[in-house]
Amino acid sequence: MAIQRMDNVLVVVEDLDAVVSFFVELGMELEGRGPVEGRWVERIIGLEGVRQDVAMLRTPDGHGRVELAKFHAPAAVRGAAEDAPTNTLGIRRIMFAVDDLEDTVARLRARGAEPVGEVVQYEDVYRLCYVRGPEGIVVGLAEQVG
């Protein structure tokens, strides 16, 4: 049996509103938002007494999703520093294709995002950069050129 698709990536956050706003500014669409709790979720994630708020966002083409979760109980734990370098073990970034790199970076900077490095061009294919958004979330941006 082969994989059918990648459904979503989960990011656990403290400030759900700020992170939802960041991803909406990036161009994602909020699919839904609401509380999640009960025995069924406890059994899936292996934690007891789970109470969380979840927001699901999708890319405009409908194929990619980011799930955001704010845990009320049990309290979330911090794994790495918010400004962890790119070579820290674990998932480091989410990459998005954009149509205008400068405009996207400017809009995200207005929401508090900061560049991780520089905007660079990879051959005659892409212009790329990483930005660090709320709660240290690193987003890669790729604009196709040529």
Features:
alpha+beta, 19% helix, four-stranded mixed sheet, 146 residues, five-stranded mixed sheet
Structure description:
The chain is 19% helix and 37% strand. It is an alpha+beta fold and 146 residues long. Strands 5, 6, 7, 8 and 9 form a five-stranded mixed beta sheet that branches. The longest helix is centred in the N-terminal third of the chain and has 11 residues, at 16-26. The relative contact order is 0.19. The mean pLDDT is 93.
In short:
With 146 residues, the chain is α+β, with helices and mostly antiparallel strands. The chain contains three helices and nine strands, in the order βαβαβββαββββ.
Q: What share of the residues does DSSP label as strand, in percent?
A: 35-45%
Unreliable residue stretches: none
Q: What is the H/E order?
A: EHEHEEEHEEEE
The pLDDT mean sits at 93
- The helix/strand class is alpha+beta
Note the main sheet: 5 strands, mixed
Gross morphology: globular
Counting H and I runs of at least 4 residues, what is the number of helices? 3
Oligomer: single chain
User: How many strand segments?
Assistant: 9
The residue fraction in helices comes out at 10-25%
End-to-end gap: 38 Å
Provide the gyration radius in Å.
16 Å
How are the elements arranged and paired?
Blueprint: E1 9-12, H1 16-26, E2 29-37, H2 39-45, E3 51-58, E4 65-73, E5 94-98, H3 101-110, E6 114-115, E7 120-122, E8 126-132, E9 138-144
